[in-house]
Amino acid sequence: MSTDTGLLIRETEESMRKAINHLEGELAKVRAGKATPQMLDGLVVDYYGNPTPINQVGNISVLDARTLTIQPWEKNMLQPIERSILQANIGVTPQNDGNIIRIFLPPLTEERRRELVKKSGGEGEHAKVAIRNLRRDAIEKVKKMQKDGLSEDAAKDAETDIQQLTDRYIALVEKHLDAKEKEIMTV
User: Fold this and answer.
1) Last residue of a domain, one of 81, 104, 127
2) CATH code, 68
3) Domain range holding 82?
4) DSSP result, the chain
């Protein structure tokens, strides 16, 4: 294998690894009956006119399996945090006692669990599409290298390696999705 194709394969694998890391982050946001601070990732609060991530205006902690607490660093941030959670429409209602905000997670119904599995599947499909796009781009680069003088055998070997890499990462996506479905459907 030439150094050019080896470098291309390493770059492709690194990009596929990033797609898996992104999938893991997205799946962590899908709640599976347990309270986790990651559920609130992506929520922004109006902090003196600047949209700021919720975890940068207060301390988010897990009180028990179904309760999150948010302790804002400034008391005047209670209302904006509460408003942000309500506007996010994540299926919970924050309770403000004047010092901290509590978020009680209702138990998941069978229907809601199925919706969450479907949402997880959608995230998995996005990851698979990203991996397949990376495969396509890498194979196009190999074909361009072949036009620029790379031997046919080396090009075929590189394409085979890229396909094996793709298969491995697609299987990893499936493994993540199966684990998440099991976690969501466990009552």
Assistant:
1) 104
2) 3.30.1360.40
3) 37-104
4) --HHHHHHHHHHHHHHHHHHHHHHHHHHHS--SS--GGGGTT-EEEETTEEEEGGGTEEEEEEETTEEEEEESSGGGHHHHHHHHHHHT-S--EEE-SS-EEEEPPPPPHHHHHHHHHHHHHHHHHHHHHHHHHHHHHHHHHHHHHHTT--HHHHHHHHHHHHHHHHHHHHHHHHHHHHHHHHHH--
How many domains does one find in the chain?
Answer: 2
pTM of the model: 0.73
Percentage of the chain beyond pLDDT 90 is 34
Average pLDDT, the chain: 87
**Which pLDDT does position 166 carry in this prediction?**
94
pLDDT at position 31? 67
